[in-house]
Amino acid sequence: MREFELIGKAKELFRVERDDVIVGIDDDCALVDVGTRLALTTDCLHEKTDFPKGIKPEEIGHLALAINLSDLASCGAKPLFFLYTITLSDYWIEYFERILKGMKNLADKYGVAVVGGDTDFGDELHISGFAIGKAERFVGRDGAKVGDKICVTGLLGKAQLSLEQLMNGFSRYEIAYPDSLFKPEPRVEEGLRIAKHANSMTDISDSLAISLHQIAKRSGVGIKIYEEKIPLDHLTKFVDYEKALELFLYSGGDYELVFTSKKSEYIEIGEVIEDEGVWIVRRDGRVKEVEFRGYAHL
Amino acid sequence: MREFELIGKAKELFRVERDDVIVGIDDDCALVDVGTRLALTTDCLHEKTDFPKGIKPEEIGHLALAINLSDLASCGAKPLFFLYTITLSDYWIEYFERILKGMKNLADKYGVAVVGGDTDFGDELHISGFAIGKAERFVGRDGAKVGDKICVTGLLGKAQLSLEQLMNGFSRYEIAYPDSLFKPEPRVEEGLRIAKHANSMTDISDSLAISLHQIAKRSGVGIKIYEEKIPLDHLTKFVDYEKALELFLYSGGDYELVFTSKKSEYIEIGEVIEDEGVWIVRRDGRVKEVEFRGYAHL
C-alpha cells in the first residue's frame, strides 16, 4: 500500500537521537520528555475520502477530534490539549460553528482544552488535528511478548458494514450502526485502563489485520488469532458469514483498541507466538495467513 | 474579513478557564503549563492559495515548518518539536521525499525534532503543521504599553512584490526577492532575543497593518507610525513610492516580527500611544488611519 511506503520514507528521514525524544515518528504517538512525558499525535480528514454522505457538521468536528484521541488512547495517554486547522469550502462556511461545537462536545467529555486553530478557505473541507496527552505509562506497538493474549476493546466491522449499506442506498436512519460510522467513540478510558498492564497496543483505524501486522512486525513476534473466538453475530444479522469475517478482519473506522497483555480483558481473540507472521486458525483447524490489507476510506 | 469573523467565533466557543491553560486560542500560540511552560501553534498551507508558481518541493516543506516556527518566534518560544499532516495529490506523490527534506533542513537548522506525520491522498496538496516550543518568557499581542517603541525585525513588502512580479510573467530567477517569497526565514533567534525585553510581539503573516491592529486592540492602546521612519528603498527600486508604501503596510508573507518595547531594536517605525486606533503620520504631517487589511494569499 502506497501510504505505508511513503510513511516508511518519512520514518527513515526523521529518525532522531535526542534525549528528549523517547519515541519518534514511528508509532501512533510520539513520546517526548519536557520534564513531563507527553504523547503527541496528529491526524487529518478530508471530505472526499473521510466523510460519509449525510454526515452532520457536529459529527465532522467530533470525528476530527475522535481520531486523535483514539491515537492518544492507543498509547495509554490522558488527553490534555487539542489544536486544529480547518480549510472550509464555500458549502461548509455556514456550518463552521456547528463543526466546532461537535468538537467541543467531545473535548468537554474528556477534559480536553482546544487551545489553537487555523482557519482558511479552499475547494474541499479539510481538518487536521493535533493532540497532546500525558503518558504515565506509554504503550507502543513494539512491546508484545510471546504468550501475551490478543484482545480488542469492542466489536469490529460495524463502521464498514454501515458504510456499505449507506453506499447501497440506505439512509443514515436505516443503516445498522450509524454511531460507529458517523460518531465513533474514542476509547479514552479503556486506553488508560489497559495501559496499566498491556505490553503493546494500537488503535484500529485501517483494519484489525493491519494493526496486528504492525504489532507483530514492530515487536519481532508472530500473532495467532482463532476464528472461533471472533464474535460475528453483530454482522451475520446483516451479511453472510464469510463477509462478516472479512469485515471483522479487514475493515476500519471503528476505532477500537487492540492490545497484547498477560491479562485477558475485553474480547480475547488470540495470542502472541514466536514464529513471525499473523495467522488465523479457521474453525476447521486450517491455519491461514492474515493479509496486510484494510480499507477505512470511502 | 471573513477569516477573522470565523476566528472570533472559534475564540468565543473555545474559551477555557483552566490552571494549565495560560493563553488559549487567542494569540499566535497557546501557552500551556505541564510543569514546563509550552507554546503550541498550528498553521496550514494548501496549493491553490499558498504556493507560488514555480515553488520547489523542498521549499514547500520549508514553508510548512517556517510559518509555524514564525508563530513560536513571535511568542518568544524556543522550538522543540514538529508534527505535520500532508495530503498529496497525484502530481506531488513523486516529490514527497523532497518536500520532507526541505522540512528537515530547516528543522535541523533550529534544533527541531520532527516527531509525527500523517500522510494521505487527495485532489490538492495540503500541509498542516503543529509546533511545540518552550517559552521562558511568553510574549503575546496584549502587553503593549503606552510609550513603547514599535519595531520590526526586517524589511517588509518583499514577498508580495516578488509575487506580483511572478504573476506578471517574471521567472523565479528574475524576481526581486525570491527567498522572501519561496523560502522565508523564520525569525527564531530574533524572537528569543526580543522576548527578553518586549511587551508585545506578533509575526507579520498577513500584513503589518493587521498585526498592528491586533496588538493595539488586544492591548487596549493605540499605535502611531511615521512614514519618514519606514524604509522603502528596497521597494522603490522596482515600483513607485506610493505602491512601495502600500506593499510595506498592507502585504504579508515576509514573516518578520513586529514588537513593542521600551528598547528600540532592529527597525523602529513608531510608538504606542494612549488614543485607540492605528495611525500613520505622513511626511507632510497629515495623520491618516492605517486600515485593517492585508493580503498574503495568492
UniProtKB/TrEMBL annotation, chains A, B:
Matching SUPFAM superfamilies: PurM C-terminal domain-like, PurM N-terminal domain-like
Catalytic activity, reaction form: thiamine phosphate + ATP = thiamine diphosphate + ADP
Source superkingdom: Archaea
Residues where ATP binds: G117, D118, R141, S205
Residues reported to bind Mg(2+) 4: D28, T41, D71
Example GO BP: thiamine diphosphate biosynthetic process
EC number per UniProt: 2.7.4.16
Domain PurM-like N-terminal: 27-134
Keyword Kinase part of the UniProt annotation: yes
Binding site for Mg(2+) 5: D206
Keyword vocabulary terms for this entry: ATP-binding, Kinase, Magnesium, Metal-binding, Nucleotide-binding, Thiamine biosynthesis, Transferase
Family named by the database record: Belongs to the thiamine-monophosphate kinase family.
Protein's name in the database: Thiamine-monophosphate kinase
Gene source species: Archaeoglobus profundus (strain DSM 5631 / JCM 9629 / NBRC 100127 / Av18)
Source lineage: Archaea, Methanobacteriati, Methanobacteriota, Archaeoglobi, Archaeoglobales
Gene: thiL
